[in-house]
Amino acid sequence: MIELAPDTPERERNRWLRRLDWRFLLHEPAPRRVCSLLPAGQSSLKQAIQAFDLQPAPPADLAVVQNPTRARLAQAFAALQPGGELYSEWRFPMGGERAVRHALTQAGFVDIACYWAWPVPGTRPPSFWLPVDAPHAIRAFLALRPATRSKRITARRTALRYLWQAAYRAEVVAPLQVTARRPNGQQAPLITMLHENGIAASRVSSLLLTGGARSVNKVVRLLFHEQQPEPVAVVKYPRVPASIEPLRREARTLQLLHQLRPVPLAGVPEVLHWNEQTGQLTEHALMGKPLYSLLTAQSLASYAMRASDWLSALVYGPATNDWIQRIAQPALAFFKTHFGAVIDVQRVDDLEAALQRVGVLPTTFEQRDFSPWNVLLDRNNQLIVLDWESAEPQGLPGLDLIYFLSYLIFTHEQAMESKKFRASYLRLRDRQHPVGALVHRCLAHYAQVTGLNSDVLRVLWPFTWVLHARSEYAHMQADCGGTPTRAQLETSVFVDLWRTEMALFGHSNR
What are the backbone dihedrals phi and psi of residue 262, each rounded to the nearest 5 degrees, phi first? Predict the structure, then answer.
């Protein structure tokens, strides 16, 4: 796996890594021997390859070309070992996709796949890579794109869609990003993996999603079989070594969750394959629209209560008190150590004393990123829960629900855009306010279903923000390539929510 120096600032690391996201369109995304046949000059692709010191060592696993001539394609084919792959970028291919396919076929390549990425690689990091020869996959992508409240973004998306559709019909889609393979008499590795997991596919089309703002964000590849309207599998890849452990945690949690529940919980992905060496995770595909994109004033209460019901099914027991040592104390110690410059440490000690008095709690599958952007609704209006990378199989009850309800209200009140989290938080914690009354009903329902004492939830509110502050600190650390400054720590949303909650701690209106 390619990686930059550990002290490389996140912005630079992210820029270089994302210029090489096309590697996740390959059957083998981590080639060991790369032959760069790029033209003279310092293109962004050439600079990215040089940044990672990927040197040619024929016979190569991968050859990379841009706007290749017939001679350059022949050179790439000769440089590859049997089964080796080609990545090529064609800025304005004369004759369009058909001409590109013809040129690659004439050069001896097989498994040719053409993509259109947006934004165009080299200008900004692409968010998606559409397979131009798989209209069924593109239709699925367009149907599931989340709605937006922004009229400007909606207009831009609509214009882009019409422009792309017109170019597609006229067969002038450009630029094109194309992968191919030198034949070796064997099936492509991805096809073999699907066969081993009971999915009979002779040919698959890939749709690559490379969004997210950070280098640690995973890459998601949707696999479509023939002309089927929905993907048969989803493959998740880590961009950097630090992302392998979260995917390993997701694989183990999902496998354990399916094993321990006598009746499978609807909306939970099923693991098809986990590659311990590469960190590649393959799951059955579950498709839907993000809940936040469907949220309205009329649907708010329904979604809140349905999520409360869904989360209650993750409480499975038995009740123990070892969570203090396993979860609470490490999180509180981290909070004091890393945010001590901007918090009242004595208040952290007060919270720890309150947690100590809680005693035993039922064991819970804690998802730890249960949010309106990770909860989807499928075509049957059923909940789907994605991204179990932060999950804790032996976690605490209530924390996922507190986190979800808070961010559901933040989304509803557009606090995510205005950054007025504290004002929104005070409303959702006030039982006399409509959103606060809704939050209280959901928590009371959850407590009743799970047998949890409602007094326990009062203590878990502030601890929720202590626990989530760890990931926020990691993002700050990556952004500056070192230790965050006091000014950066002061921008922590979770520290502000913790302060706000501690000011309310024990208040009768909570």
Answer: -65, -35
Around Cβ 471, how many Cβ atoms within 10 Å? 13
List the one residue out of 457, 502, 22, 422 whose CA is nearest residue 237.
22
Of the candidates 275, 112, 81, the residue with the CA atom closest to the CA atom of residue 185 = 81
Q: How confident is the model at residue 454 (pLDDT cuts 50, 70, 90)?
A: confident
Report residue 398 CA to chain centroid gap.
23
Beta-carbon neighbour count of residue 47 at 10 Å?
14
Type and span of the H or E element at 319: strand 315-320
What is the predicted pLDDT for the residue at 510? Answer: 45
| pLDDT of 450 higher than 90 | yes
Cβ neighbours of 257 (radius 10 Å): 22
What confidence tier does 508 reach under pLDDT thresholds 50, 70, 90? very low
Residues 6+ apart with CB under 8 A from 44: 19, 121, 122
pLDDT at 147: 63
Show the tokens assigned to 429.
């914690």
What are the structure tokens assigned to 173, written together?
A: 């889609």
More confident residue, 216 or 180: 180
The answer to whether 308 touches 446, Cβ cutoff 8 Å, is: yes
Q: Residue 215 gets which letter from DSSP?
A: T
250 in Cβ contact with 391 (< 8 Å): yes
Dihedral sign, CA of 274, 276, 278, 279?
positive
